[in-house]
Design goal:
Elements (H helix, E strand, L loop, with lengths): L11 E6 L3 H13 L4 E7 L11 H6 L18 E5 L3 E5 L4 E4 L4 E3 L2 E4 L3 E3 L11 E2 L3 H18 L4 E5 L3 H12 L3 E6 L11 H13 L3 E4 L3 E6 L5 E6 L4 E3 L2 E4 L3 E3 L22 E2 L11 E3 L4 E2 L8 H15 L13 E5 L2 E7 L9 E7 L4 E7 L6 E7 L5 H4 L33 E3 L4 E2 H9 L13 H8 L9 H14 L16 H11 L4 H8 L8 H12 L15 H5 L2 E2 L5 E3 L10 H13 L3 E4 L5 E6 L4 H10 L12 E6 L13 H12 L8 E6 L13 E6 L2 E6 L11 E7 L1 H18 L6 H7 L3 H9 L7 H14 L3 H7 L1 H4 L18 E3 L5 E3 L36
Parallel strand pairs: 1-2, 1-7, 2-3, 7-19, 9-16, 10-11, 10-16, 11-12, 18-20, 32-33, 33-34
Antiparallel strand pairs: 4-5, 5-6, 8-17, 13-14, 14-15, 21-22, 22-25, 23-24, 24-25, 26-27, 28-29, 29-31, 30-31, 34-35, 35-36, 37-38
Helix pairs in contact: 1-6, 8-10, 11-13, 16-22, 18-21
């Protein structure tokens, strides 16, 4: 172990060669442990921040997806220095420095090599015409080539992937999503032969062939053929067959990038290398040269280099721990694999091939269904050694943490495909690894739930999102999230914390259950609902939730029939209250399109009522500073000019942002403005668990920032790509691709289904991004329901949306028609004509007005400046004037 002698005054210099996931995890681990006395420089040859290679398939099908690991703000730390475009080419061990291809020299006290691996290539004639599958640039090039070839050839192209392992099948699945015919060539007799035995590999082959994949196994390619223009035409096989191909991708594995450790000819070798490459490390990731460490795919431990995220993360944490004086050691490689390929579940872990002496294999195989399940145990059928699952991998999550332990039931009970039902309930030991990607044990999870001191104030963690952030479990591949959630609920129940889905103390039902009950029984009033499902008079949780649910199912005026008392402040005023007690006025400007005449109306209204005006982020105009009693006057002028409420105050659709699209822009491929207006007019007034925002971009340049919206629509040459589940806020999320190349009718149908499914099933105040994350299956579940109608409710969802569209009313236009409704808009309920003189404005520096500060008003707070009038015949007891919101 290298002795630490760093101090804040003389920080020790750490240089990291490489900028992939392992390098990022090391920098993050150092950052988490404290960088006092350290300075970390990360040298990456790529132009990007470190990104998630595990998710490359997302970038293959969507070039705009952001795979950046962690928060980019981490690199703003003064002791962290990320240098992109810097490839380390030489280590000078004597001078303790590294040289880069750009000719720069970086001195180090500790060197961490995380150069990863390169894609393995085939030494075949014509190999210069193939693509590889390794970096962002690689997958972007594949995406571009498929699009260009499809357009050039005017047909569905044949995309041949050479390699039937993890990378190869991931690549082939991506080409299918891009519209190509996927063809897989695999030298081994069955797919994923490194992780699956023959029965499982054959089951996988049958399943993906049924999904349109063409698979050629047990034979090797011998040449990549092309025409006179260099365009690929086919792959010549060793048996003489020619497999037609328009694009060829090689994904046969990786080889360690260990050139930094190889001695030049005539030089003494300082480092030991494995027989198949990679620098040999000891059990705390140190090489033979003091002060030089290796982590990730370049590191050879026990004769192996593995391209898996879990061991790379573990190695990074070990080196960070050692540099901080710890004694962590590397336990060996965890080769567990779980993935979904074109909807097919595959999982493998432990001694999957039953190589342990006297091992037993308990197998269930159903070739007709393409299902294969195997559990490997010791000869007494008690201790779990490994397993393989294809087609139905549901037992994996229960079994994976029990590897090497005694099973709580006989092995056959875990073979769910055999008809035995759900796997037996399992109590995980504290030292069982729940999240293998980040090496998080069940004990660590329990400590966090019960208050371990790691979180601020030693507070127990009782929310899934908070638990993931605190422990890192479930933040990489996500496959352990169901088990994580189950453990959280179990521990909370044990500690006496009732795991309740109750909406609040007055209603025991969850929001989803309450929504369904109101819908099925056609309840229309708060009183009816509370009489049947609630107790007491309600609270500030259940009242607005019930008001929202009623508004979602019935487009009647939201403040009638006693519903006004259920609403939040903004909904009661049909406007957003500002910090000084005034309100903002936001008329709808669908798609951001507005005529000069209507612009003039807004300008005239703003001048007349001395309102502050601002263009909003959603392409509307917001007018600030209106008093409550002025709202009807302002809206009358706006409604008379053809405006309607922009619903900026409600848990409803806010805006549909758009670029100018093909109408004006030379890059536009669809009329994004027309589509944005159509969508906004369709979903206006749609009440939901949280506010909704949409965006429509006329091309892939994405000027409308559609992927930051709850529903985003991006034009393609063949229609529209539909993205769902994006949002900004404190925890921003990119929307995920739901369906592509849709015509107008199908696009609107899918959005109808998506919105109504979200409205019916989301929790109170839950954004679409968080709702989507917490659904079992995530985006795949959403796709199954919305696109494939697996629940059989699509027709019902569409009918519910059609009802909303047919019964929509503009709330402000309706308000102005009824004198009784207008009574709400008074500053003082007992003095209808009295203005609120406590509201004061001052000019700002940019030619408009703003609310006066307390100092500018003589340090008299708004709440303390409500005037008291002397007794009058109308007010004989001279009470203090009351604000509407205080009643």
């Amino acid at each position: 172990m290298t002795e630490q002698t760093s101090t804040p005054e003389t920080p020790r210099r750490i240089v990291v060669a490489g900028g992939g996931p392992a390098a990022h995890r090391f920098a993050d681990a150092m950052h988490a442990r404290g960088l006092d006395g350290w300075h970390v420089t990360v040298l990456t040859e790529e132009a990007h921040l470190p990104y998630d290679r595990v998710a490359l398939s997302k970038a293959l099908t969507d070039s705009s997806v952001d795979l950046t690991l962690g928060a980019a703000s981490m690199w703003d730390h003064e002791a962290l220095n990320l240098q992109t475009g810097e490839r380390v080419v030489k280590i000078n061990t004597a001078a303790k420095s590294v040289e880069t291809a750009a000719g720069n020299t970086y001195e180090y006290d500790e060197l961490v090599v995380a150069t990863g691996s390169d894609a393995a290539r085939l030494p075949l004639p014509g190999a210069e015409r193939v693509h590889v599958y390794r970096t962002l640039e690689d997958v972007w090039a594949i995406n571009k080539s498929i699009a260009e070839l499809t357009q050039k050839l005017g047909r569905k192209i044949n995309a041949v992937t050479i390699g039937g392992g993890l990378l190869g099948l991931e690549s082939a699945a991506g080409t299918e999503q891009l519209g190509a015919t996927p063809v897989v060539i695999n030298g081994a007799p069955w797919l994923m032969n490194t992780q699956l035995d023959e029965g499982a590999g054959q089951a996988l082959g049958r399943l993906i062939e049924a999904k349109g994949f063409e698979v050629h196994g047990g034979v090797f390619p011998s040449e990549i053929q092309a025409d006179d223009d260099g365009q690929v035409t086919g792959v010549l096989m060793a048996d003489g067959r020619i497999i037609p191909a328009d694009i060829v991708i090689v994904a046969i594995g990786v080889k360690p990038r260990d050139e930094l450790f190889r001695a030049a000819e005539g030089e003494e070798a300082l480092f030991d290398l494995g027989p198949r490459g990679g620098v040999v490390i000891n059990d705390y990731c140190a090489t033979q040269v003091p002060g030089i460490w290796a982590i990730g795919e370049v590191a050879n431990f026990g004769g192996m280099c593995l391209g898996l995220v879990a061991p790379a993360n573990t190695m990074a944490e070990i080196v960070a721990d050692r540099l901080h004086g710890g004694d962590a050691t590397f336990p060996g490689f965890d080769t567990a694999t779980k993935l979904k390929l074109s909807g097919v579940d595959v999982a493998s872990f432990g001694d999957a091939f039953a190589k342990t002496e006297h091992a037993l294999e308990i197998v269930y195989a159903d070739p007709a269904r393409g299902v294969y399940q195997k559990i490997v145990t010791t000869d007494d059928a008690k201790t779990l050694l490994g397993g393989i699952f294809v087609g139905d991998a549901s037992p994996y999550m229960s079994l994976r943490p029990l590897l090497g332990r005694e099973l709580p039931a006989e092995p056959g009970a875990f073979l769910s495909a055999a008809g035995g039902g759900d796997a037996p309930e399992t109590e995980l030991p504290d030292d069982a690894t729940l999240c293998s990607c980040n090496n998080v044990t069940a004990g660590t999870i329990r400590d966090a739930i019960n208050g371990c001191g790691a979180c601020e104030g030693n507070a127990p963690v009782q929310e899934l999102g908070e638990l993931k952030g605190c422990t890192r479990a479930g933040t990489q591949c996500g496959s352990c999230v169901p088990m994580l959630k189950k453990l959280l609920e179990t521990e909370l129940t044990k500690s006496g914390v009732e795991v309740s889905k109750a909406l609040c103390e007055h209603i025991e039902l969850s929001r989803q259950e309450l929504f369904d009950a109101i819908r099925v029984l056609e309840l229309t009033s708060f009183e009816e609902i509370m009489a049947k499902y609630g107790t007491g008079a309600g609270c500030d949780i259940c009242k607005p939730t019930i008001g929202n649910i009623l508004a979602s199912q019935n487009s009647a005026y939201v403040l009638d029939a006693g519903r006004g008392t259920l609403q939040d402040t903004n909904d009661r005023a049909l406007a957003n209250m500002q910090k000084d007690g005034t309100y903002s006025v936001v008329p709808r400007i669908a798609g951001g399109e507005i005529t000069p005449k209507k612009l003039g109306v807004i300008a005239a209204v703003a001048e007349k009522y001395n309102l502050y005006t601002k263009i909003t982020g959603g392409q509307r105009i917001d007018m600030f500073g209106a008093r409550l009693e002025q709202l009807p006057e302002i809206w009358k002028e706006l409604v008379d000019a053809g405006f309607e409420s922009g619903q900026a105050y409600g848990k409803s659709l806010r805006t549909v942002k758009s670029c100018v699209g093909s109408t004006w822009c030379r890059f536009g491929v669809q009329d994004s403005v027309a589509m944005a207006i159509q969508l906004e007019l369709r979903y206006r007034g749609l009440r939901s668990p949280h506010k909704l925002k949409m965006g429509v971009s006329g091309c892939a340049r994405e000027c409308a920032e559609a992927r930051g919206k709850d529903v985003g629509v991006i034009a393609t040459a063949d229609g529209w790509n539909l993205y769902v589940g994006g949002n900004g806020g404190a925890t921003p999320a990119h929307a995920q691709l739901l369906a592509k190349d849709l015509d107008d009718e199908t696009l609107i149908k899918y959005i109808d289904r998506y919105f109504m499914y979200y409205i019916r099933t989301a929790d109170r105040l839950q954004r679409t991004a968080r709702w989507q994350e917490e659904l079992d299956g995530g985006i795949k579940h959403v796709e199954d329901v919305v696109v494939h109608d697996t629940l059989g409710i699509a027709e019902d969802l569409e009918a519910a949306m059609a009802k909303h569209v047919d019964t929509y009313i503009d709330e402000w236009a309706d308000t102005l028609k009824d004198p009784e409704r207008l009574r709400r808009f008074r500053s003082f309920v007992n003095a209808p004509d009295q203005k609120d003189d406590s509201i004061t404005f001052v000019p700002d520096e940019r030619g408009q007005m703003r609310p006066a500060t307390a100092e500018e008003k003589g340090k008299v707070l708004i709440g303390a400046s409500i005037p008291v009038r002397p007794a009058t015949p109308e007010l004989p007891s001279a009470p203090e004037l009351l604000h509407e919101n205080e009643v």
